[in-house]
Amino acid sequence: MAGPWTLGLLCGLLAAALAEATLSSPAVLSLGPEVIKEQLTQKLEDHNATTILQQLPLLSAVQHRSNRKIPLLRNLVNTVMKSIIWLKVTSASILQMQIQSLPYHQEMMVKIPLNMVAGLNTPLVRTIVEFHMESEAQALVRVERSNSTSRRLVLSECFCSSSNLRIRLLHRLSFVVNALAEKIRNLLVPALPELVQTELCPVIKAAFDDMYTSLLQLMTVPIPLNPGGLVFDPMFLIIEEDTVRFYLEARVLNSKGQVTTWFQSSEMTLTVPKLGNTSSSFVIRQDLVNAVIATLLPSENFVILLDYAHPDVARKLKLSLQKISKQVADRLDNTQIVKMVTRNVPYLHLIPGSSTVAQQIVMDIFATDKKPHPLFTLGIETKSEVQFYNEGDRVMINFKDISSDRIRLMNSDIGVFNTNLLKDAITMILTAELLPNQNSKLRAGICMPIVKALGCETASWSSAQEILILTPDSDF
Ligand SMILES: *[C@@H]1O[C@H](CO)[C@@H](O)[C@H](O)[C@H]1NC(C)=O
Ligand SMILES: *[C@@H]1O[C@H](CO)[C@@H](O)[C@H](O)[C@H]1NC(C)=O
Ligand SMILES: *[C@@H]1O[C@H](CO)[C@@H](O)[C@H](O)[C@H]1NC(C)=O
User: Fold this and answer.
1) CATH code of the region 35-219
2) Which ligand is nearest to the CA of 151?
């Protein structure tokens, strides 16, 4: 029967699980098994894991084993041992590792198959006696709670089970040598898993910790924005079947490095799509994307000498005004000025396929540069398509086309008129001035080192319902 202590523990665990289910973060990095396998394989290579296998001290391990035999047998075995000149691994390779999800919460198993050939040199036979040895290192990966808020991914246990051990002679030998080889094989069967555990497991652990540290570095490296910056920090992480998900918080900084917006866990949920057939993904919530856009495109004033800068647009404005009043149109001279201010920062609405950005603009039209008051003032709601694409590890954002959806007359020196008559001229002004200006500020793109954490060189951005998703280009 479960005692009160067990019940308390269960309730605690349940509460923690529920808290996580409702926790939400502005960004989530999901790494599937293929990425973890590839990155761990790379780190094992960096840590010279195969060299470690090639240097396994087989002879001393076998000798050590033979000393443990009961005295009667020891003499026999000693005779065998004396006839060995050397016994060592002559070739070793690490085969394709496997990641297996475990039924327990927050755990998964990494299986690393090992393939080796050991050579035995003895005066009893001219050629080297060779053994083919297959084994498997297994490591348990889990989420460790270091304190109430901080979690880390750890490789908690590493062992070499004898169940996947196979040692066999590569060649047929004479009867006498065969008997010797068989004795050595019998000593290798218990010795090899022990050796793998003591020699290779520390290297696997070091490689894993190295991989985890590199991942954290890629996630937390500050991303420069112009102006300001963006910093991600892991909030918590979970293992979900064979996928590791890092939930990140984000800070948007201004040019002085001060935090302007801090996105922590919030009520706003972030729906992380299943990985499906992609190996990894990075998902950013719409409100964070908008905070970044607000940093890149702060509210701004434009003063345009329309006839000098864009004579064709000035002509169009005059023609449109003529439809309202010939006298008013005639008051425009070639020093006419358009003043524009972006009222609020642009607001991106992310949807699958084509996302849009909405902006509010206040526009004053001055007939000449001498007039202190505008002819009229318009409030304009615009809409553009937003395009996301990638260049290397940069996300590029571009506003395409601009339409003036609603035009309100806010102030007028020339009486009330139908603002729709100016729609085409206004769209031309916005297309000539606002769009190129904003696109030039977006042109540098945003460097995302996290692309490398996805296990790829290049990745593609796409928008889904209220999220921006980065997925690797080359899929497994
Ligand atoms: C792996 O081997 C290379 C060359 O022998 C050496 O420079 C490097 O330090 C080794 N790496 C580790 C982690 O021991
Ligand atoms: C939790 O641990 C991390 C590092 O292990 C430390 O930076 C952080 O301050 C700790 N938080 C609390 C609440 O103790
Ligand atoms: C999986 O990939 C194929 C092509 O590689 C694509 O056609 C399909 O839509 C993808 N499925 C999902 C669920 O993403």
Assistant:
1) 3.15.10.10
2) 2
Average of per-residue pLDDT across 15-23: 45
What Cα–Cα distance (Å) separates residue 193 from each residue in 139, 162, 196, 243, 447? Answer: 14, 6, 5, 29, 46
Cβ–ligand 2 contact at 150 (below 6 Å) = yes
pLDDT given for residue 106 in this prediction: 85
Residues contacting 362, CB < 8 A, separation 6+: 340, 341, 343, 377, 378, 379, 380, 410
Pocket test for ligand 3, best of 30, 34, 274, 277 (most atoms within 8 A of CB): 277
CATH code of 295-446, in short, is 3.15.20.10
Query: pLDDT for 422-434, tens place per residue?
Result: 999 999 999 999 9
The boundaries of every CATH 3.15.20.10 domain in the chain are 295-446
Q: Ligand 3 atom 9: the closest Cα is on which residue?
A: 277
Task: For the full predicted model, state whether its pTM sits above 0.70.
Answer: yes
Q: Report yes or no: 288 and 270 within 8 Å, Cβ to Cβ.
A: no
CA atoms of 161 and 135, how far apart (whole Å): 8
Q: Which residue has the tokens 């470690």?
A: 52
Task: Please spell the DSSP secondary structure of 372-422, one letter per residue.
Answer: SS-SEEEEEEEEEEEEEEEETTEEEEEEEEEEEEEEEEEEESS----GGGG
Pocket of ligand 3 (CB under 6 A): 276-277
